[in-house]
């Protein structure tokens, strides 16, 4: 089934959330409300989205890749606030933020989150951030303050050794995603883990023009490598924004009363291999599609209703490919977080979506796990997993009482 629905992952996986991210450039606000560098942040986010999507599609060629690039970049940008020197530059490179200062990056992301969460009264879009810190680990106040101010991050200091520590974090994730994602952290939390930075996004939107359930019919989906799956097709014939050029077709399905968010479906020609097609997509192609979709046409649309889940996916390999490998090493410079050496240990992502006649519901979570490179890691180890000698002695008179 995973291979059979491969094409859908391109249709929905990135493009729905990317439409939100490009909304700020498509619907220009009053001059002076957002600075030029903030516009650049939104554009760079979209470049990152396509590059990350292509890397994951190549890495997981037999899976349905569905991600929220906005969730990934938000969690990494919170982490970036603690990076310095070459580590800062490495993360900026991966996020395509090179040449931008942190003030512009933070304010651009803050503006974006504020706009998205008030996008349409008939659309629910929640963006939640949190930072979970191991009790008594020294974290700089400036790092916490900037993430509170710019990302409205909830900060919690908890005892990671407690049995329910992971459960507490997972309950926050469940609440932030309205129950669509219930678990990202497995207990027990590793001894060297000192922090989790988490972004969660939840979306629920009704189509501006819903599909009629009476016009949903069973059919077959022609998947990759000739595999066929049984699906239910939603159908409608009406005027909609449609584009056709350069070996592909695209159609825009708006959400909400104001049509301020949408799903864009992109269909390559039958002769074009889907993975080859995805590999050639980029921001220029996306901008071409957006421009072409400004024209209305009468369209007979047939698309499957479906549910999709991707992850929990470890993103380290893809992020290393994008240039931020140093951030995962003991040479990482996160002195903006703590003077005690730390590095990124893991970047985990999960996303789910449900597409039906009424609309769509989706959620995504990104977890950046921070480990110590000193402190606990430099403790001497005593692991008695082979034959050993033991002695029980009187520590006052130094008499050996037992030995074995």
Quick recap of the structure?
This protein is α+β, with helices and mostly antiparallel strands and 404 residues long.
Provide structural commentary.
The protein is an alpha+beta fold. It has a single domain (1-404), classed as Antithrombin, Chain I, domain 2, CATH 3.30.497. Helix content is 31%, strand content 31%. It is built from eleven helices and twelve strands. It has helices spanning 6-12, 15-26, 36-59, 69-80, 85-95, 102-116, 141-151, 165-176, 274-279, 283-292, 316-321; strands at residues 123-134, 154-158, 193-206, 216-222, 228-245, 248-255, 261-268, 296-314, 342-355, 359-372, 391-393, 400-403. Strands 1, 2, 3, 4, 5, 6, 7, 8, 9 and 10 form a ten-stranded mixed beta sheet that branches. Strands 11-12 form a two-stranded antiparallel ribbon. Helix 7 (141-151) links the parallel strand 1 and strand 2 (154-158). Helix 4 runs antiparallel to helix 5 (85-95). The radius of gyration is 24 Å and the shape is elongated. Mean pLDDT is 86; it is low at 1-31.
Break the fold down into its secondary structure elements and pairings.
Blueprint: H1 6-12, H2 15-26, H3 36-59, H4 69-80, H5 85-95, H6 102-116, E1 123-134, H7 141-151, E2 154-158, H8 165-176, E3 193-206, E4 216-222, E5 228-245, E6 248-255, E7 261-268, H9 274-279, H10 283-292, E8 296-314, H11 316-321, E9 342-355, E10 359-372, E11 391-393, E12 400-403
Parallel strand pairs: 1-2
Antiparallel strand pairs: 1-3, 3-10, 4-5, 5-6, 5-8, 6-7, 8-9, 9-10, 11-12
Helix pairs in contact: 2-3, 3-6, 4-5
């Amino acid at each position: 089934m995973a291979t059979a629905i491969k094409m859908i992952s391109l249709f929905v996986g990135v493009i729905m959330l990317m439409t939100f991210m490009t909304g700020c450039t498509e619907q220009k606000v009053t001059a002076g409300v957002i600075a030029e560098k903030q516009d650049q942040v939104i554009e760079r986010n979209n470049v990152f989205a396509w590059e990350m999507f292509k890397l994951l599609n190549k890495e997981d060629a037999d899976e349905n890749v569905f991600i929220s690039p906005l969730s990934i970049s938000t969690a990494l940008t919170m982490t970036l606030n603690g990076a310095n020197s070459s580590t800062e530059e490495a993360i900026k490179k991966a996020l395509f933020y090179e040449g931008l200062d942190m003030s512009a990056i933070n304010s651009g992301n803050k503006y974006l989150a504020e706009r998205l969460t008030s996008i349409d009264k008939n659309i629910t879009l929640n963006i939640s951030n949190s930072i979970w810190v191991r009790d008594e680990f020294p974290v700089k106040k400036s790092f916490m303050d900037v993430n509170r101010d710019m990302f409205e991050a909830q900060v919690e200091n908890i005892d990671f050794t407690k049995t329910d520590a992971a459960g507490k974090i997972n309950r926050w994730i469940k609440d932030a995603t309205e129950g669509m994602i219930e678990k990202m952290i497995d207990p027990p939390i590793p001894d060297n883990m000192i922090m989790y930075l988490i972004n969660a996004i939840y979306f629920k939107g009704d189509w501006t023009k819903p599909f009629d359930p009476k016009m949903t019919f069973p059919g077959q989906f022609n998947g990759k490598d000739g595999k066929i799956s049984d699906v239910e097709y939603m159908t409608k014939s009406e005027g909609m924004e449609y584009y056709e050029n350069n070996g592909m077709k695209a159609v825009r399905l708006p959400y909400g009363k104001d049509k301020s968010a949408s799903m864009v479906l992109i269909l390559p020609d039958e002769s074009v291999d889907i993975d080859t097609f995805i590999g050639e997509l980029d921001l220029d192609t996306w901008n071409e599609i957006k421009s072409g979709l400004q024209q209305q046409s009468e369209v007979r649309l047939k698309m499957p209703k479906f549910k999709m889940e991707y992850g929990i996916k470890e993103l380290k390999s893809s992020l290393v490919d994008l240039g931020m490998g140093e951030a995962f090493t003991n040479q990482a410079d996160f002195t903006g977080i703590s003077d005690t050496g730390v590095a990124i240990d893991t970047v985990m992502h999960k996303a789910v979506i449900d597409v039906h006649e009424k609309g769509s519901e989706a959620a995504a979570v990104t977890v950046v796990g921070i480990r110590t490179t000193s402190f606990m890691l430099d403790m001497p180890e005593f692991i008695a997993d082979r034959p050993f000698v033991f002695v029980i002695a009187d520590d006052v008179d130094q008499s050996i009482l037992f030995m074995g």
